């Protein structure tokens, strides 16, 4: 047996450092949090070689007074009160005053710092935990920390690091989360000499999203802000089109601190049910602000998983917050009325598809500019379209500089009424329509399923009877187990619009169904529903009714591969337009109902245009 010895302080420091500074991204996190605590509103982070070679964090915060610079690197040195009144403090308390000490135990650190009232700043270099030299230096207000050769003296930890590009990715993740939580601070991230992102620091979350994830995301977010019983949920959720195949674009803050909470992710997904494709996960950046006593702090300080004292309550509030956001209409902009003469196409649907006022859009200059850049033809329309009247859009935009009036005019052009012309049906599955400068395809099954679903839901909610009585009742023979489960859930079936009864033996008799459907599909639906009801009994989900109505809608809907008459198509197109004005544009499983190509896009495909 080896002798029992007390570890030297330098070894102890290295072990402690393993927790605070386990990898470059953790070092960046500590340094950036210090910069935020110092009141900075501009923070620049630069790394090289995944952060192992070099990390620099520069802030314009309060700086450290000359006499205290050395002290800041001592273990347990902190200028911050340890308030036990919020989650952040509680969960990082284990590390209070330890970050700088830990970091400098495993690297070489240089600091340049100056307070506003000092004439000159201080330079200090610290290597392997020991302060080397201190001198005066001319510099601006704030602090720059440079950390080099991280873990060079801890080979074991060095081995545990991933390749540089992966570590750099972790740094980007950490920094983007912090940036999302602090839109009022401008963050710049530079990696190996390239600026990866820079946030504006103008206090607007949507701009942080624009800077981090690009225009596509910034265009597709909906604000969330909802308070109930001292619990406030705020931030943004993304429309289904920016959902991802994993949860990497879900960001949650509890009392300002980044955390992970699996169940809250589930709640968000639940709120998106019927609007999102199965296997897709919604984008969100959400803050949960609540009294500290409602958070279970019994978690390791370095861990990001959080538990709530009263889970159910928090989840209910979050669910409502997100649902509300999904259904709220956007703020209206006043748009100049403008009547534009349009030739009427011959075959038109009785109610033109954009006859319903579309969801008013906030006019965002960046988006309008982007739209214009993408849609304005740089040359006149090509040969085949010369016969058509030149679209008004082109005239306005080509000859007028970018001004407020242009934007308004553009907006009104976008919103003008144009009847949709049904071109026909292809593959017995899709309906093709032309409207203005667009051609679109409607998936007849998706559209019909959604229509059925909405009608069913409405009747169900209003407690109207929606049973379709069958001309002659059907007797269904089930097996023993199936019969048992169906009978156990008989009241459920009646509630969802079935008219049915026990028919002795293993049979049931069906007199009516929730929607008209093929006999062959009734049995499938019943079994699917009884499975779902059984499942619900064991693991209840919030939106079971919706899920059940969705199953019914799906089984009753027009299938793909069915020839439709013109009138049937007309009806479907019209209903799709109605649904779209209510913000519904996917089938209950989240598949899109319609896909649109602009004339411009088609011309690009044919290389008539660049
Ligand atoms: P803690 O943040 O828990 O106090 P640290 O070891 O991270 O512990 O920092 C020690 C102290 O150094 C802080 O309390 C603060 O006074 C000072 N400090 C560190 N970084 C900065 C900075 N960027 N600007 C101003 N002061 C800083
Ligand atoms: Mg700190």
Structure description:
By secondary structure, this protein is of the alpha+beta class. Among the domains are: 9-206, Heat Shock Protein 90 (2-Layer Sandwich); 220-334, 2-Layer Sandwich (Ribosomal Protein S5, domain 2); 465-556, Ribosomal Protein S8, Chain: A, domain 1 (2-Layer Sandwich), CATH 3.30.1370.100. The chain is 37% helix and 21% strand. The protein has 21 helices and 22 strands. Helix 10 (262-271) packs parallel to helix 11 (311-327) and helix 18 (519-538) runs antiparallel to helix 19. The protein is elongated, with a radius of gyration of 31 Å. The termini are far apart. 33% of the residues are buried. Bound molecules: adenosine-5'-diphosphate and magnesium ion.
Whole-number mean pLDDT: 79
How many E strands?
22
Please, how many helices? 21
Low-confidence stretches: 82-94, 329-403, 409-416
Name given to the CATH homologous superfamily of the domain at 9-206: Histidine kinase-like ATPase, C-terminal domain
User: Helical percent range?
Assistant: 25-40%
Bound molecules: adenosine-5'-diphosphate, magnesium ion
End-to-end C-alpha gap: 77 Å
Largest sheet: spatial strand order: 5-4-3-6-2-1-7-8
Which second-level CATH architecture of the domain at 9-206 applies? 2-Layer Sandwich
- CATH topology category name of the domain at 9-206: Heat Shock Protein 90
Q: Beta fraction of the residues?
A: 15-25%
């Amino acid at each position: 047996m080896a002798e029992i010895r007390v570890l030297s302080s330098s070894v102890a420091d290295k072990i402690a450092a393993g927790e605070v500074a386990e990898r470059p991204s953790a070092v960046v996190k500590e340094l950036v949090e210090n910069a935020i605590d110092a009141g900075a509103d501009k923070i620049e982070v630069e790394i090289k070689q995944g952060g192992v070679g070099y990390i620099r964090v520069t802030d314009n915060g309060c700086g450290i007074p000359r006499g205290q610079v050395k002290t800041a690197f001592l273990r347990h040195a902190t200028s911050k009160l340890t308030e036990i009144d919020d989650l952040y403090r509680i969960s990082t308390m284990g590390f209070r005053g330890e970050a700088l000490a830990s970091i400098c135990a495993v690297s070489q650190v240089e600091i340049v710092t100056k307070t506003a009232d000092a004439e000159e700043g201080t330079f200090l270099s610290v290597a392997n935990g020991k302060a080397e030299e201190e001198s005066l230096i001319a510099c601006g207000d704030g602090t720059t920390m440079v950390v080099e050769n991280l873990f060079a003296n801890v080979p074991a930890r060095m081995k545990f690091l991933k390749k540089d590009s992966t570590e750099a990715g972790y740094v980007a993740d950490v920094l983007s989360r912090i940036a999302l939580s602090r839109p009022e601070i401008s963050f710049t991230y530079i990696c190996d000499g390239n600026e990866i992102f820079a946030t504006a620091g103008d206090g607007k979350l949507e701009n942080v999203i624009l800077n981090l994830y690009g225009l596509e995301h910034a265009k597709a977010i909906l604000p969330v802000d909802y308070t109930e019983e001292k619990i406030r949920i705020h931030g943004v959720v993304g429309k289904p089109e920016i959902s991802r195949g994993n949860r990497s674009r879900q960001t949650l803050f509890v009392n300002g601190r980044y955390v992970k909470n699996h169940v809250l992710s589930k709640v968000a997904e639940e709120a998106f049910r019927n609007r999102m494709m199965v296997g897709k996960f919604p984008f969100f950046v959400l803050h949960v602000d609540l009294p500290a006593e409602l958070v279970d702090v019994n978690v390791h300080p370095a861990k990001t998983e959080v538990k709530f004292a009263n889970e159910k309550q928090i989840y209910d509030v979050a669910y409502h917050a997100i649902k509300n956001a999904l259904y709220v209409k956007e703020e209206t902009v006043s748009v100049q009325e403008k009547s534009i003469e349009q030739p009427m196409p011959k075959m038109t649907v009785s109610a033109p598809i954009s006859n319903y006022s579309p969801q008013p859009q906030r006019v965002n200059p960046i988006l309008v500019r982007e739209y214009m850049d993408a849609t304005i033809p740089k040359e006149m329309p090509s040969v085949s379209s010369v016969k058509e009247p030149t679209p008004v859009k082109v005239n306005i935009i080509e000859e007028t500089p970018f001004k407020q009036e242009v934007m308004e005019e553009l907006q009104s052009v976008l919103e003008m009424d144009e009847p949709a012309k049904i071109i026909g049906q292809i593959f017995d599955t899709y309906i093709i329509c032309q409207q203005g400068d667009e051609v679109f395809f409607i998936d007849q099954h998706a559209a019909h399923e959604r229509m059925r679903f909405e009608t069913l839901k409405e009747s169900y909610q209003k407690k109207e009877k929606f049973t379709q009585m069958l001309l002659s009742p059907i007797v269904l023979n089930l097996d023993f187990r199936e019969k048992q489960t169906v009978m156990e859930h008989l009241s459920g079936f009646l509630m969802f619009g079935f008219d049915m009864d026990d028919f002795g033996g293993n049979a049931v008799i069906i007199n009516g169904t929730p929607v008209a459907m093929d006999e062959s599909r009734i049995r499938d639906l019943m079994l699917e529903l009884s499975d779902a009801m059984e499942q619900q009994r064991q693991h209840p989900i919030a939106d079971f009714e919706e899920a059940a109505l969705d199953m019914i809608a799906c089984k009753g809907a027009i299938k793909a591969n069915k020839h439709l008459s013109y009138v049937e198509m007309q009806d479907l197109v019209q209903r799709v337009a109605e649904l779209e004005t209510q913000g519904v544009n996917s089938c209950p499983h989240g598949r899109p109902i319609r896909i649109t190509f602009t004339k411009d896009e088609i011309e690009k495909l044919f290389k008539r245009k660049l």
